Amino acid sequence: MAGERLVILGAGESGVGAAYLAKQQGYDVFVSDFGVIADKYKAQLEEWNIRFEEKQHTESEILLAVEVIKSPGIPEKAAIVKALRAKGTPVISEIEFAGRYTKACIIGITGSNGKTTTSSLTYHILKNAGLNVGLAGNIGKSFAYQVATESYDHYVLELSSFMLDDMYKFKVNIAVLLNITPDHLDRYDYKLQNYADSKFRITQNQTATDYFIYCADDAETLKGMEQRTFEAQLLPFSIQKTLPLGAYLNGEELTINTPNNHFEMTITKLALQGKHNIYNSMASGIVSKVLELRNGDIRESMGNFRNVPHRLEHVADIAGIRFINDSKATNVNSTWYALEGMPNEKVVLILGGVDKGNDYNELTSLIKSKVKAIVCMGTENARIHEAFSDDVKTIVNTASAKEAVAAAYKLATKGDTVLLSPACASFDLFKNYEDRGDQFKQAVMEL
């Protein structure tokens, strides 16, 4: 409400966007970041005349808030969050806040793996089909900032579990859950059940006019569904079985049936190849048919889409060695998908970073069959050595992207692939996974 104190914790993309929207709505806005605020965000806050602090959280200022918008990166165990919870102050996400000020149709996409690719592909299809659509969430400009400055009819939102945790009344019209595999368990008391519960929050508040699109081949998703009832219309996708509604494979044909529409496309014509990308394309395709887009437009967009940087991105071929940047693989399952999609059996794999409670056993069979050497890139590599020393003859330690690339180049020979797919978070040596991927690409280009 106008004049009331609204505090934003964290001054990254999402926090600064929320601050702008809150200011626009007449709140007394205060932004607090325990770390250093990036210059570009400081400049924006100053330009908008929004008060802020960095390198501290001043409790006397923050506890005056009627409501607090928290950055997804701040855990519940942070002292300031505990103080707010004790006082009973509502703590919400930027998505929850921004959702109050838009009547757009919301397509929300979550899952342990494939979120960014599926969100980007869905946005690409909708935009090319002529829809007035925005892309936000974990990707692009903040949702709140776009709500404040644009008037989109549709939004494609990439939603992480951390965002979903702080969403209560927000409703997703078309919800997509790609998969549930162990990730971020350090934030969920190391319980997969807690993490799965978080993912299923994407379906909360849905009604009979909404849709829930999910993978019928994913064991954890099916387990979670058995414990819940759904108001929304269910549209599953599978590459293992034929389905009356949803998406499935009919030989080489990707087939989609929604209550009012039918779509087919040969999988060899998809821009995104590999088993995991068939799932991603199915999910995007179902969204497109729910929105009743023309088949020709969907086929064209699915055929000409270019994947996002840092996700299985081809960097260069040097001396017959292929270099692939999959820096976005911040968990074991992402690395599993990357290895599973490698065409040859001679991979030099660059692994390591901040281990979030990883179970490396999932990778053992692929490491045995496809990996000739492992280059560790991180400050703590002991668990990688423990996991794979019996399966891989050569495991070396490095402490920078440049060192890792040089070591991998030395270990690889003509016809091999050097794959950066770390299975870990990046913040031991890098600002984020983009910085890690960019440093890797630069090092490759300097060979």
From TrEMBL:
Outline the extent of the Mur ligase C-terminal domain: 310-424
* GO BP annotation list: cell division; cell wall organization; peptidoglycan biosynthetic process; regulation of cell shape
Cite the EC number: 6.3.2.9
Gene Ontology MF terms in the entry: ATP binding; UDP-N-acetylmuramoylalanine-D-glutamate ligase activity
Q: Where is it mainly found?
A: cytoplasm
Report the catalytic activity: UDP-N-acetyl-alpha-D-muramoyl-L-alanine + D-glutamate + ATP = UDP-N-acetyl-alpha-D-muramoyl-L-alanyl-D-glutamate + ADP + phosphate + H(+)
The residues the record assigns to binding ATP are 111-117
Where in or outside the cell it occurs: the entry states:
Cytoplasm
Q: What class of enzyme is it?
A: ligase
Q: Give the Mur ligase central domain ranges.
A: 109-286
Q: In which pathway does it act?
A: Cell wall biogenesis; peptidoglycan biosynthesis
Superkingdom of this protein's organism: Bacteria
Q: Which cellular components does GO assign to this protein?
A: cytoplasm
SUPFAM superfamilies, per database record: MurCD N-terminal domain, MurD-like peptide ligases, catalytic domain, MurD-like peptide ligases, peptide-binding domain
Q: Which UniProt keywords apply?
A: ATP-binding, Cell cycle, Cell division, Cell shape, Cell wall biogenesis/degradation, Cytoplasm, Ligase, Nucleotide-binding, Peptidoglycan synthesis
Family as reported in the entry's similarity comment: Belongs to the MurCDEF family.
HAMAP family registered for this protein in UniProt: MurD
The record's listing under PANTHER family reads: UDP-N-ACETYLMURAMOYLALANINE--D-GLUTAMATE LIGASE (PTHR43692)
Q: What does this gene product do?
A: Cell wall formation. Catalyzes the addition of glutamate to the nucleotide precursor UDP-N-acetylmuramoyl-L-alanine (UMA).
Q: What is this protein called?
A: UDP-N-acetylmuramoylalanine--D-glutamate ligase
Taxonomic source organism? Mucilaginibacter aquatilis
Q: Upper taxonomic classification of the species?
A: Bacteria, Pseudomonadati, Bacteroidota, Sphingobacteriia, Sphingobacteriales
